[in-house]
Design goal:
heterodimer; A: 309 residues; mainly alpha; MetI-like fold; 2 domains; two-stranded antiparallel sheet; two-stranded antiparallel ribbon; B: 420 residues; alpha/beta; D-Maltodextrin-Binding Protein, domain 2; ten-stranded mixed β-sheet; 18 helices; 10 strands; 15% strand; transport (chain B); Bact_solute-bd_prot1 (chain B)
């Protein structure tokens, strides 16, 4: 062809053409709004006009005793929410995946589906169902505990400051444990049989095989799950909002960054919304997530050893 | 992200709004409202009554969902597609519309003379010089009780606080019923039906409320802390696990006949009439000593004004004047028992429970919820804080004195007259 004979390599238009739809759509619905939010945080509303005020919104958010107290409270709760997920959801997910991949297990498809189903439920349904289960008036939880003689252990968990957040975190774990299970399960299945047979020849079987062979091989998948959990938890909102409302009671003990953002941005009852300060909170959330992801990316993921089969 | 959603919502609202303003030969007035529950009442009773007496004017009731109303209305007003008549939220939400020039001052309408100052306060400027909505209805707080349980246990509605607690003790001793249905989970129950229900008897209604606005009283004063002490004393009489009991739970406990008393707002009347199959009675918040003046929370909740940019100003004025008339007051109050007319005209009501509630206006002094006028303009928002601390006090997580201090500290952080 003629083009091949010219000295300069031809401009490869097709790359731009094929990239264009994705880039344009992604820019329009993700990047522009993101920068708009960042911009919004630098303005304030004065007499129905947007006025540039630099970093004043952030000064208010972190400098004012009340705002900063609420912010750190929400962040602290968020961290606890995340810790529960890391300590409960992910180990249980790994355990379930290990059990599922055991060759002696029967009805594997049934278990897999049953455990995964809550994940596809709406937050609102999960929240409402658990609110009913745990209700001290009509719930089945008090009766079930009574059945095994442990009625004394029952508490109105969602109404007690000490328990509410942990209870909600566990509800969320119940709902989403299917995701780490599936990802790890897939990773476990992709370990070649030759490797496991070789291990068996060397006398590594049972639990030792899991700890020494399988677990190191699925570590990258565990890393991905951790980061997904991190991002998901710091963006969480729906479950708290649907069970505890926008004031995240009792006494803000379940207030996380998402509900704090909602109250500030849209207002609540007589509190008028303040989109600018709300955008400042959204920006802070964005930075927290960005920092968390970066730490993972540069600090952990690069050190993970990968194996080529 | 969130910002984008807002834009889309505004766009959608604008398009829907403009689709709604079709013109006919007659002048057609469109009413913006959040009361979508009331659609049948407007279509079947109120609008036909108006149209019969005012030929040439047609009225269309176009409600949106309560939680979306403020956002939808604001965007319609900005885009110039809002209806001629605007249902008004009380206080600051409507005041800000008036200040933006989107609502018209209507204090000169002939029928505005039918309303007292307290009724108009919710839709007037701070100095009272302009009023921009016709008051439609208020809700009254008190206690609704299960008359059959009272009869069975030989109880009578209490007048004083001591009698009230003696009554609760009796129900508790008997053991077959939960003395009072109320939960702490939704927070607003504790604030609305708890603190601001019984409170006016302690801060002497309007007297205390206005003194608070002027900065002459503080939320740490005895008058404002004592209602919290009373609230804290309710805890042993509530159901098991009331800390996690939500508002619908409380309603169900009462309508299923498992609880004897429901600290209520009058809007419950129509719901309870439908769901409860026993006789009910009501009593006002008990006073401290026999013979004390009683005060009730008679909270202005809903009004109606006109769009400054609406095309049919004259017809809209005619309609608003009609809303101020005795005819409307009686129609509205009887179609929606529990929403009481704010008119000075006497309104005959048929529902016995609603009659009982409204009779307290004769014997007691009316006031509105203390946090709503002016005091909820800043952050932290006083009303939101009241929800939180009232629930805390009810759960025993905060002492009444601490609750007062939290409120005072929050208010003093931004409200000038309270700063010293």
């Amino acid at each position: 062809m003629a083009a091949e004979q010219s000295t300069r390599p031809p401009i490869r238009w097709h790359i731009a053409v094929f990239l264009a739809p994705a880039v344009l759509i992604y820019t329009a619905i993700m990047i522009l709004p993101l920068f708009n939010t960042l911009k919004l945080a630098l303005y304030t509303d004065a007499q129905n006009a947007q006025v540039f005020i630099g970093l004043d919104n952030f000064r208010l958010l972190f400098g004012d005793e009340r705002w900063s107290e609420q912010f750190w409270n929400a962040l602290g709760n968020n961290v606890w929410f995340f810790i529960i997920h890391m300590l409960v959801q992910n180990p249980i997910g790994i355990l379930l995946a290990a059990l599922l991949s055991s060759p002696r297990l029967r009805m594997r498809a049934f278990y897999r589906t049953a455990i995964f189903i809550p994940t596809i439920l709406s937050f609102v349904i999960a929240g409402f169902a658990w609110k009913l289960i745990l209700s001290p008036l009509w719930g089945v939880a008090p009766n079930l505990l009574d059945f095994v003689g442990l009625k004394g252990l029952f508490q109105p968990w969602l109404g007690k400051e000490a328990y509410a957040l942990t209870t909600l975190a566990l509800i969320s774990v119940w709902q989403f444990v299917g995701i780490p299970m599936m990802l790890i399960y897939a990773a476990l299945l992709s370990i070649p049989d030759e490797l496991l047979e070789a291990a068996e020849c060397d006398g590594v079987t049972g639990m030792a095989q899991f700890w020494k062979i399988k677990l190191p091989l699925v570590l990258p998948a565990i890393g991905i799950i951790s980061i997904l959990t991190f991002v998901g938890n710091f963006n969480a909102f729906d479950l708290i909002y649907s069970t505890q409302g926008a004031l995240a009671g009792p006494d803000f003990s379940t207030d996380i960054l998402g509900t704090f953002l909602y109250r500030t941005f849209f207002g609540f009852q007589l509190q008028l919304g303040d989109p600018n300060l709300g955008a400042a909170i959204a920006t802070a959330m964005f930075l927290i997530i960005l920092i968390g992801v970066s730490i993972y990316l540069f600090g952990i993921q690069r050190r993970l050893r990968r194996y080529q089969f | 992200m969130t910002f984008k959603h807002m834009k889309l919502a505004l766009l959608a609202a604008t398009m829907l709004g403009s689709a709604g303003t079709a013109m006919a030969e007659d002048v057609t007035l469109t009413i913006e409202s959040w009361r979508n529950d009331d659609l049948p009442i407007w279509q079947e009773k109120l609008i036909p009554a108006f149209e019969a007496s005012h030929p040439g004017i047609k009225v269309k009731f176009a409600p949106s969902a309560p939680t979306e109303y403020n956002a939808v209305l604001n965007s319609k007003l900005e885009a110039g597609t809002a209806g001629d008549l605007i249902t008004c939220r009380p206080f600051d939400a409507s005041l800000s519309l008036y200040n933006k020039g989107q609502l018209v001052a209507i204090q000169d309408l002939p029928n505005m003379k039918n309303f007292g100052d307290v009724a108009k306060a919710a839709w007037s400027t701070d100095d009272g010089s302009a009023t921009f909505c016709v008051p439609m209805a208020s809700v009254i707080h008190g206690f609704i009780y299960n008359a059959e349980i009272f009869e069975e246990l030989g109880l009578e509605a209490p007048k004083t606080v001591d009698a009230f607690f003696a009554l609760l003790d009796k129900i508790k001793e008997d053991g077959s019923y939960i003395p009072m249905a109320m939960g702490a989970k939704d927070q607003w129950e504790a604030a609305t039906m708890g603190y601001t229900n019984i409170g006016p008897n302690y801060w002497k209604g309007e007297e205390g409320r206005l003194a608070l606005i002027k900065g002459e009283q503080k939320l740490t004063d005895e008058d404002w802390v004592e209602p919290f002490r009373q609230l804290a004393k309710w805890a042993p009489y509530l159901g098991d696990g009331y800390e996690a009991q939500a508002y619908p739970d409380s309603q169900n406990l009462f309508t299923l006949g498992r609880a004897a008393i429901f600290p209520a707002g009058s809007w419950e009347i129509s719901i309870f009439n439908e769901q409860a199959d026993f006789k009910m009675g009501a009593f006002p918040p008990p006073v401290q000593k026999e013979g004390d003046t009683c005060y009730i929370s008679d909270h202005t909740d809903i009004g109606i004004g006109m769009n400054a940019k609406g095309p049919n100003q004259e017809a809209a004025k005619t309609f608003l004047n009609w809303v101020g008339s005795a005819e409307f007051a009686s129609l509205y109050a009887n179609s929606l028992p529990g929403f009481f007319s704010l008119s000075n005209e006497t309104v005959e009501m048929e529902d016995p429970l609603a009659k009982e509630f409204v009779s307290w206006r004769e014997s007691c002094k009316s006031t509105i919820r203390p946090a709503h006028q002016i005091l909820s303009r800043g952050t932290p928002n006083l009303w939101n804080e009241m929800w939180n601390v009232s629930a805390n006090v009810l759960r025993g997580a905060q002492t009444p004195e601490e609750a007062g201090e939290t409120l005072q500290k929050g208010l003093a952080s931004w409200y000038e007259p309270q700063k010293q």
